[in-house]
Amino acid sequence: MQESVPGESNHAAGPDGKSSGPAGNQPRQNGRARRFGSPRHAAGASSSALPPGDGGDAPAGGAGTERLGTQLLAWGRELLTIVVIAVVLSFLIKTFLFRAFYIPSGSMENTLQINDRIFVNLLVPEPISIKRGDVVVFKDTQGWLAEEPAQQNSGSWLSDAAIFIGLAPDNSQQHLVKRVIGLPGDRVVCCDAEGRLSVNGQALDEPYLYPGAAPSETAFAVTVPEGQLWVMGDHRNNSQDSRFHDAYNGTGFVPVEDVEGRAAVIAWPLAHWGILGNHPEVFKDVPDAPAGSLDETSPAAP
């Protein structure tokens, strides 16, 4: 069944006034479906007789430009939505899950090297508890580091934005990174006859130490107070850690509440990429309390 268009005849009239048959192959314009060979399109029909919206032979440039503008606007909105979602997710991840930090010194070599970028798990120490062997980042509330001069300009707006949303490490604050050796209540002693550290009477063999470095070049024996940690660098002869600050001014113990999180991944450079473990095999035989810490008259602990 064929439709007829008002103002058009189904057959074109020839010079002698007789019908010359169906008009041939004239496509409709301005984006409507094109029909070829339809008797709707009569030869010689006036463009003014077309229904409203048909431009006849008028150029279609205006409609095409408008359509392109609409598409570009839709793409722009979609791109903006993706960017906003990515920024919000990154900010939430930085705030509650992971945060980037920069390593400026060699106190944790070779586990961490100068200029490494690491991601820190912010779920430690709460709700995930700290374990012996964890590499932790903590705030310097006790003045272990020299105070940094105020920076006039932290960098470009792009780098500041990347730091804010957590895509770039923040090196403007005073933080340190060390390995947890003693938990609250632990007795940490150095050194035994073989020069090893011991925790609660259990000697440690530490594979993460810098090659050639001794477990400690200074002797010490401490009991970690409640709510505190005893931390040490892996490059023991190049680390001003709990040993140094305990002997220097009695600030060797690090408050658990100062811990920002546990270092989980080396993200950059790619040559150093890897997951940071806490070497549970080193501490698996360490008892939960120092030997002789229980009152002999009290019931045996379960």
Describe the largest sheet: 8 strands, antiparallel
Poorly predicted ranges? 1-56, 294-302
Distance between the termini: 93 Å
Helix proportion: 10-25%
- Quaternary state of this entry equals single chain
Number of DSSP E strands = 12
Query: What's the alpha carbon Rg, rounded to whole Å?
Result: 38 Å
Count of helical stretches: 4
Strand content: 15-25%
Structural class: alpha+beta
Characteristic terms for this protein:
18% strand, 4 helices, eight-stranded antiparallel sheet, 302 residues, alpha+beta, disordered C terminus, four-stranded antiparallel sheet, elongated, disordered N terminus
Write a structural description.
This protein is an alpha+beta fold and 302 residues long. Helix content is 19%, strand content 18%. The chain has 4 helices and 12 strands. The chain has helices at 61-96, 157-165, 242-249, 280-283; strands at residues 98-102, 117-121, 135-139, 175-182, 187-190, 197-199, 202-203, 220-223, 228-232, 254-255, 259-268, 274-275. Strands 1, 2, 3, 4, 9, 10, 11 and 12 form an 8-stranded antiparallel β-sheet that branches. A 4-stranded antiparallel β-sheet has the order 7-6-5-8, with no helix packed on it.
